[in-house]
Fold:
Amino acid sequence: MKKYVLFIAGILVVCLQACDIIEPPYSETVIGPQPGDTLVRKVLLEDYTGHKCPNCPAAAKIADTLSNYIYKDRVVVVGLHVSTSFASPSPGLFSNDYRTTAGTDLDNFFQISLSGLPKGMVNRKGFPSQQHKISPTAWASEVALNLQQPVEANIEITNTYNAASNELTTQLQSKFLTDKSGTYFLNVMYVEDSVISAQLYPNNKIDTFYVHKHLFRGMINGTWGEQIAVDPQQDFISNKTYTVTLRTDVKPEKCKVIAFIYNDATKEVIQAEETHLQ
Amino acid sequence: MQKTLPVLIGTIFFSWSLISSTFAQQLPNGISGAFQADAATYKPDSLIGAPDVPEKMGLNSYMDLKYVNGNFKAGIRYEVYLNALQGYDPRYKGTGITNRYASYTYENLEITAGSFYEQFGSGLIFRTYYDYDLGYDNPMDGINIKYNTHGLYAKAFVGRQRAFFEYGPGIVRGIDGEVHLAEMFPDLKWGQHNLIIGGSFVSKYQADNDPIYKLPENVGASAARLNYTNGPLNLFAEYAYKINDPSLVNGGIYKPGQSLYVSGTYSKKGFGFNAAFKRIDNMNFRSDRNESVNVLNINFIPAISKNQTYRLATLYPYASQVNGEIGAMAEVFYTCKPGSFLGGKYGTGININSSNIHDIKRSYTGDEYGYNSNFFAIGDTVFYQDINVEVTKKINKNLKVVATYIYQTYNQTVVEGKSKSPLVFADVAVLDFTYKFSSTKSLRMELQGLWTKQDRGDWVFVLAELNVIKNLSVVLYDEYNYGNADEKLQLHFVNGGLVYNHNATRVALGYGKQRSGLLCVGGVCRLVPASNGLTFSISTSF
Structure:
């Protein structure tokens, strides 16, 4: 009997040491970006979502927490509505179609919605080994890891909006801060904040006045952007200017221009930037 | 399309059989193995929803080799996905050795190093297994030790879990003990009675790199179980508890999980009765909190709904819901004796089975804790209900008939994740005829119908399987969605094929269209997309 008692005591010791019971508050004490750093690494978080995706609001909340409360402007978020199941319009509350041609092209290429939504990409890292499709609960840790990388490029965006013609002209200066090998593209898009319409929640609940943030509205220089450098040296600068007519269903005062530089071979984003349109 | 025996007896007995076979039986010395390859070609078909697959073809294959020499055994598995068949996780890509182990048994001690499959109790807190068809494989890679003495059976392991061709980020540790009272105290007059008391504990470690939330790096789960047997009677009960484990699947909530599984079976010649009850509450348990579907599961939720095998009956299968479900099932088998009124000349088999599964009742707290739930309260949302009546009758020495009626209530939103989809209420009827021309020649036919006003509407299915040449079967079937509300989608899914069997070798060649749906085994499911093309399969063991 003695050995049984020892056995059970051993189990109890193991059990007690292998449990982390978390008491409220469940949130970490947030340490945001430190003032003074002007050239910093920024991360692109692409949230693949849909207004009929019940678990997507929780994912959007994580993305918003990262970009508005924790890392602030060091996390650049874009929300792309994709797929027939989760984003197609239907009569009534969900009559809006937030899908875009470029968003669908990206979804087809990266095969995000095939794995179910919500999913996202953090700097598109992990492609093509299928590690690029990241669940929302892992976004924060992936963002934290990516922010620890050294800053390799900088993007400056200057926007001019002509209300009469509804035309946006955006000037972009991309500067490489270190020697890089490979071919690099600059991709430019615009997103709209605070679009209010219905969103499905778990248990078939609907928020009729859901605020869709970072809503992807379209590419400015094509789905894959434009090549700006091959094997760039430190201090290499590329200047680009694009003019585009905005969609008529967006509010320009709520729009931002997002630009990012990525490696053509790996698709990995090395720097991102965003600026309000007006 | 072979009709298999109802699996629920197996579901209820499997825990006991696993307990009983805790220690490996003595295997014959030498090398043994198994091989299987499945290939398919894909043609796009926008009407049925078959995608344009760039590689035009998929191939899944594996070979298992096992070497046994006395108390020593070792094994290896090589897997091939070039590329994976449609419907399998695309992270199955490439080739490689995914499983290798060596094991040695010395008296009452067995030690395994490398890959291993193991289960504690019914699996509520720990079960690893391999299902090739589901694309499900979650073995541990580490050390597994088993020891027994005088009715005490103990297991302990530490390892990481396979995730495709890599490992998950977590480390899993587990310990299990079991006391067989009849064996421990043989002097007591047990007769046919036996009582087994067991307990287990499993913990997983995964680093917390999250800057937003305090995540538990060590998540522990424990379980206690009882198993009483007395001749034809077998009663089993297991309760499990898991501490806070916010994850992708549970929406990041901190509520602890718990589950209860109770089953009972009574069987004697010509009569059998099974019943089971389960309540699952927030029991998603994985070695990566950010994974979902069938990846890196540490535990397993036993299924209580009938595992359907007839084609149309599989259109609405039930998948166990780890976030919460409460349900029960009951099943009766009865064989009417030959010569009786119902039995006729050859006897009649009757099987009635019913299951009813709901959501658990929740009151949401509005914070990260998630919700509170009264343990035995039943939620309003129906997940799945079915009633199955099956009659097996041999008409004469040549003709055997199986007649089945099924009524199903199916929650598409919960099981398939379809948004805003209504409950499906479906009637299914099946007639299965087998006519033997001789001991080696036969014709089997299935006539099936499914009627529902929801989802894709009514279906009919006709199958003919002809066995007139030794070892060779010819199969032809058509699945016709004649009741689809969209006339363009009132489609035929016609398939034909040849199957050759010789000893342990099976070769199958088929061509046709396949509708999309779920493939479920034991409550674990995989999405099977629509496809159009040629299929080829070969399997053997040696």
About this structure: The two ends of chain B are 24 Å apart (CA to CA).
